[in-house]
Amino acid sequence: MNEYTQAEIGHKTNIEILNILPEKVNAGEDLLIQVRVTSVSNNDLLGCKIQVIDFSSNIVTETELNFFNRIDNDTYEFPLKAPKEPGEYAWTVLFPAQQKEGTLFKESSMQFSFIVKPHMITISSWGVLSPVTQGEKFKVNIGVKCSAGCSLAGLPLFVMDDNHQQVAVGHLREEIMPQTHGFYWTEQELTAPTDEAFHKWAIQCRAQELEIQHQSHPETFLFRTAKPPEHKIMIKVINKFDKSPIQEAYVMLGLYKATADKNGVATLVVPGGNQELYITKDDYISFQTSLEISEDTDIKAELEYCPVL
After folding, report:
1. N or C: which end of the chain has fewer CB within 10 A?
2. pLDDT, tens only, 167-193
3. HSE-up of 129 (CA within 13 Å, CB side)?
4. What is this structure's pTM?
5. Contacts of 216 (CB under 8 A, 6+ apart)
6. Quick one: 231-303 is in which CATH superfamily?
């Protein structure tokens, strides 16, 4: 049999994917794959080409068979870049018909499928001190992170009020928050409404400005607007029986909160008017009373010791 006839007849081949591929992958992320090819005569196919073909018959990547163990021919594990557009994809790993040392090896192929998912952006907020004085400036800390670790430096943000009206625009800082991984943040200044009420505002980002498709959900934060604080109220919390100071008691006067210091003293600046005073401490009976605030006042609160058994 001459060389031409041998090449014309060809040897059958079989191709398979060795590693388990994920069902879902982030847009634009690398997908690792390793391929094996065998021939009916267990031929050495080292150096022969392997191609990955997309749904439009375009070659995504091409590599070579690198190992031969007298039966199988394997590639190294090589990366495939997932599409940037989310959706379901069916690609093909192909051993194209090719000759080696005068012998034709026939084409073989195997299809594999995967789902490309958009990157998810998580927004968080913290640091709003409630209540906020009517009409005054206040600040909120905003943190944003991508599920795939994308850079979000400079990403535009905007804040919407209760009526879905935009009240502020900002940008994430260029650097990530110290001691975090891929957590970008900023401090946004806002102006409080002039009414006296609870408010629920929302933070959103302009994810469409990123190269790869991202999805995000608004982050909401709550705060209460109140009249300007006018009067300084000093509350001394003591043991009812031995009159010793109770430190670290939790004190709440209206919307304002404080913790008693080592001398049992908590100081609050609050608006005038009727306010509810509530004090609690582990192993003590809670203290509660109503106060009419019209001037700076010192108050003594006696708590009864009652340990929980």
Report:
1. C
2. 999 999 999 999 999 999 999 999 999
3. 10
4. 0.75
5. 120, 121, 122, 123, 204, 205, 207
6. Carboxypeptidase-like, regulatory domain (2.60.40.1120)
